[in-house]
Amino acid sequence: MKGIFDFTVDTLGQCKNPSPIKLSTVEGDFVANYVKDNEFIRYNVDVYAGEKDATETYLSNLIEKAGPRELIYFNPAHVNAGIVTCGGLCPGINDVIRALVRCLYNRYGVKRVRGIRFGFKGLLPEEGFSPIDLTPDIVDDIHKVGGSFLGTSRGGGDRVTEIVDALESLNMNMFFVIGGDGTQRGALEIAEEIEKRKLKIAVIGIPKTIDNDLVFIQRSFGFDTAVQQATEAVSAAHMEAHSHINGIGLIKLMGRESGFIATTTALASHEANFCLIPEVPFDLEGEQGFLMELEKRLLRRQHAVVIAAEGAGQELLNATGEKDASGNIKLGDIGTFLKDTITAYFKKRKIHINLKYIDPSYQIRSAASTPTDSVYCERLGNNAVHAAMAGKTKIVIGLVHNEFVHLPTRLVTAERNRVNPDGSLWRDAMDATGQPALMVNPKK
């Protein structure tokens, strides 16, 4: 996303306590260094020759680097930390929980770490879920399984006053929130209520969105695992399609508003012939519509594989207008819609097909993380702890230009990240699938 943004990070106050983590302040002594608060990265790396503001843009948009500070805000002996996971499942949640607990406990000596059970609802008295104590021994092996060790739920984040009451009653001064854009918006409202009450509680977000749709963040955790799992589903669909007369493999993948998983899976699998995503419109009928292109593919190669993101083609379905507990609009089922539509189309054309439909969504969401995601989660969790100990608040930890940074929550939740139809990722996906650049009929 181009532009000039204010990446200023909120803090609870001046850092005066020496960190118990002993690192170096000089280069070349073979000891890892502290990160200083005057270390930044530039958000804008693209510079266009001849632009009047090229130099200004290049030198602005500075994002604060994440990492351990030499002086910290909290005295570790006084820290009482809480961890919550909200929203849908995503590979890597347990890796993040494990990293948070181990860094707090082993690196900073924090002995009071509690897990909030079943999302924000675990802080509401009528739900009856008491927090659980977390230690390195308890979380040592949780990264080996999928799901959330603490449990999760949607909703409850709008009951801000009650949640802050609960944090006060639990005497917490650090609150780590693992969740997607809706969860992080809730975390920001909680942090603002904390500020109104003049409480010293650091609220740190760890972005969890399997759709990879948080702006400014290079990659959300769980995405690599999702693509690997999705690629296996595409491989199975291709095998089915290739083994039958006019075989069609149809796979529905996650991606409510952003088609990153579908697009990247199409690139990774090398076996998809069509990729339908929310960002790119398509017609069903007509000479340049999807169904005619699918027919051409079958006549040419006798099999086809179609990937559809769950948010693709929603304008073709009857909108429900309903929302889930997280405030997301309930989508029509594009997978079953395409399955029925394709079947009816070829029946009308008297062309025999053999269609296999696969929806691996919940299998993907509940999978244990790949090594790549596990490493990423470990580093996200560690950097979240370093940020909280330094008194940072109202931020999420993100990866930008391969650097871990502090991003203001207000910016990250301002809008969704989407596949750019004009960009190189979608262009390369078109090369991989061989589908037309746009399956839309000319307007009459």
Task: Characterise the protein shown here.
With 444 residues, the chain is α/β, with parallel strands linked by helices. The chain is 33% helix and 16% strand. It has helices at 54-59, 93-107, 136-139, 160-169, 181-196, 223-242, 260-269, 290-301, 334-348, 361-365, 371-389, 409-412, 424-433; strands spanning 10-11, 17-18, 40-42, 62-64, 71-72, 81-85, 113-116, 132-133, 174-179, 202-207, 247-253, 274-276, 303-309, 354-358, 392-393, 395-400, 403-408. The relative contact order is 0.17. The mean pLDDT is 93.
Compose a concise summary of this entry.
With 444 residues, the chain is α/β, with parallel strands linked by helices. The chain contains 13 helices and 17 strands.
How much helicity do the residues have? 25-40%
Strand order of the largest sheet: 8-7-6-9-10-16-17
Mean pLDDT level = 93
Report the radius of gyration as a whole number of Å: 24 Å
Please state the structural category.
alpha/beta
